[in-house]
């Protein structure tokens, strides 16, 4: 059977550039630790360039807004590419999507992870031309622990801007999507403490919890330090527009001790016009409801309004 087809060329080609080193740190044992990111973008037909010596003339190499995906994993470390398959829609919508690895709680304690996120933002601005990025239009999004760090970056504080590398560039972001992030670590710790007496509960000491491992140090001062590690306490007019998603059936980070509190703080600060808050019916902690096409479209529409 022979047929002639005319598929057109509306769909653009995606390219993945992997293992880009954006910073070098030292781990607790004194060994060099390379922090890497992956970049997914529409920047031409890579294999065509190799085979033919030139790109498809239909490709568009104009600067694009960028989104930095911050993985979750309880701050204990997550593969930067683990969720990359879910990012294709954002790249197809015209975004440069960078997915980053940041130091785990075994490799560093707060604020190390936030320093890494801010460094990644500055790195992309420093290399905007190389990755076809509009440096004035950078957003962040993440799930769980990554949602916490995305929300913290969204506060656009000046803290830690002189650490980590690429200090000559801004770490400010123009949009954020926080997916069920534990944005009030103290409230989450106090919720978990009430369960320590239950033999079936996974933790029985505050230092063993995700938040405790993230903070490190003396357990006696963890609650005091948790306040400074919670973006809910840094809401100010410097905050960029933020979109929040949280499931009403989240057993790990209950909505009432996290996103409800963040939204309330935003409203009390008179910044309600900068926030979109979606409570996901039947949503657990990162369950499949969050990755349906309809939810992704809500996210893309939000980023389009803020970054395009």
If you had to describe this structure to a student in words, what would you say it looks like?
The chain has 308 residues and is an alpha/beta fold. The protein has two domains: 15-184 and 232-307, 3-Layer(aba) Sandwich (Rossmann fold), CATH 3.40.50; 185-229, no CATH class. Helix content is 27%, strand content 20%. The chain contains nine helices and eight strands. Strands 1-2-4-3-5-6-7-8 form an eight-stranded mixed beta sheet, with helices on both faces. Helix 8 (259-268) links the parallel strand 7 and strand 8 (275-280). The longest helix has 15 residues, at 112-126. The termini are far apart. The relative contact order is 0.13. The model has no long low-confidence stretch (mean pLDDT 95).
Q: Please tell me the CATH architecture of the largest domain by its name.
A: 3-Layer(aba) Sandwich
Please state the structural category: alpha/beta
CATH fold label of the largest domain: Rossmann fold
- How much strand? 15-25%
Q: Which range best describes the helical content: under 10%, 10-25%, 25-40%, 40-55%, 55-70% or over 70%?
A: 25-40%
Major β-sheet strand ordering: 1-2-4-3-5-6-7-8
How many strands? Answer: 8
The first-level CATH class name of the largest domain: Alpha Beta
Low-pLDDT runs:
none
Q: How many discrete structural domains?
A: 2
Look at the structure and give the mean pLDDT. Answer: 95
- Name the CATH homologous superfamily of the largest domain: Alpha/Beta hydrolase fold, catalytic domain
Order of helices and strands: EEHEHEHEHEHHHEHEH
């Amino acid at each position: 059977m022979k047929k002639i087809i005319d598929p057109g060329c509306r769909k653009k080609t995606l390219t993945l550039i992997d293992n880009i080193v954006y910073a070098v740190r030292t781990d607790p044992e004194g060994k060099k630790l390379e922090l890497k990111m992956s970049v997914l973008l529409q920047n031409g037909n890579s294999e065509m360039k190799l085979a033919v010596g030139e790109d498809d003339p239909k490709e568009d190499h104009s600067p694009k807004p960028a989104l930095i995906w911050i993985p979750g994993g309880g701050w204990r470390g997550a593969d930067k590419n683990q969720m990359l398959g879910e990012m294709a829609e954002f790249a197809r919508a015209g975004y440069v999507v960078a997915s980053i690895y940041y130091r785990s709680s075994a490799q560093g304690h707060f604020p190390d992870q936030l320093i890494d996120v801010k460094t990644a933002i500055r790195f992309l601005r420093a290399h905007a031309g190389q990755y076809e990025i509009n440096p004035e239009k950078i957003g962040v999004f993440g799930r769980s622990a990554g949602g916490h760090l995305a929300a913290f970056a969204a506060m656009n504080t000046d803290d830690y801007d002189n650490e980590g590398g690429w200090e000559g560039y801004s770490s400010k972001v123009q949009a954020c999507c926080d997916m069920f992030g534990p944005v009030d670590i103290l409230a989450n710790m106090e919720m978990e403490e009430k369960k320590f007496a239950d033999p079936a509960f996974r933790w029985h000491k505050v230092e063993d919890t995700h938040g405790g491992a993230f903070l490190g140090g003396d357990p006696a001062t963890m609650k005091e330090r948790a306040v400074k590690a919670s973006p809910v306490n840094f809401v100010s007019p410097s905050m960029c527009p933020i979109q929040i998603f949280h499931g009403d059936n989240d057993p790990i980070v209950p909505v009432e001790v996290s996103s409800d509190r963040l939204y309330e703080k935003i409203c009390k600060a008179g910044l309600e016009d900068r926030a979109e808050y979606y409570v996901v019916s039947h949503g657990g902690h990162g369950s499949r409801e969050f990755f349906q096409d309809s939810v992704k479209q809500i996210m893309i529409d939000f980023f389009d309004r803020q970054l395009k």
